[in-house]
Design goal:
191 residues, alpha/beta, Aconitase, domain 4, seven-stranded mixed sheet, 8 helices, 7 strands
Length: 191
């Protein structure tokens, strides 16, 4: 995982509420256990027509979305079944942060464990951001602030452990392994 501290990136919006994990990555793509390549299946049933061609009406197939790393999503993003493949697909596509008014708990936890920052904002801020889609926004995880294209700053909350892991570019196992010396010293003293 790459560290996530501060970055500036283009935004894109999929404003539908209650986008579930099966819409993010359909179940037929869950047979893999590697993260690479899942981005091509992100929102597959919306991105592609029945004959496998890109749907020109879907936002990720439009020039506006090219290079976007911040997704402005509708309320209750990531609801449905627990599948780590959903954040894997979003990260593999190139997203580093998702902004919404709320996230399903399981999705939020899976996202932070896989290098994807879920940012919760108020409905009012969400509405303001929806008027700036396509513009560059800044995400500052060090100070927990989202800056929009107009320079407005919105603080956001994240649990301290997830924040630490994202800042370091570590998952939970990497975090534990980074404390091997302390663990060995503890075990030596305890035996």
């Amino acid at each position: 995982m790459q560290p996530l501290r501060q970055f500036k990136a283009k935004s894109v919006s999929i404003p539908a509420a209650n986008i579930d994990t099966d819409q993010i990555i359909p179940a037929r793509f869950l047979k893999v256990t590697i993260k690479e390549g899942l981005g091509q299946h992100l929102f597959s049933d919306w991105r592609y027509t029945s004959d496998g061609q890109p749907n020109p009406n879907f936002v990720l197939n439009q020039a506006l979305a090219e290079g976007a790393q911040i997704l402005l999503a509708g309320d209750n993003f990531g609801c449905g079944s627990s599948r780590e493949h959903a954040p894997w697909a979003l990260v593999d596509y190139g997203f580093r942060a998702i902004v919404s008014t709320s996230f399903a708990d399981i999705f939020r936890n899976n996202a932070t464990k896989n290098g994807l920052l879920p940012i919760v904002v108020s409905a009012e801020v969400h509405q303001d951001l929806s008027q700036q889609v396509g513009a560059e926004w800044s995400v500052d995880l060090e100070s927990c602030v989202l800056r929009d294209a107009n320079g407005n700053e919105t603080p956001f909350a994240i649990d301290p452990f997830s924040r630490t892991c994202l800042l370091r570019g570590q998952d939970e196992l990497d975090f534990i392994l980074s404390h091997q010396t302390e663990i060995k010293n503890f075990e030596r003293k305890a035996s």
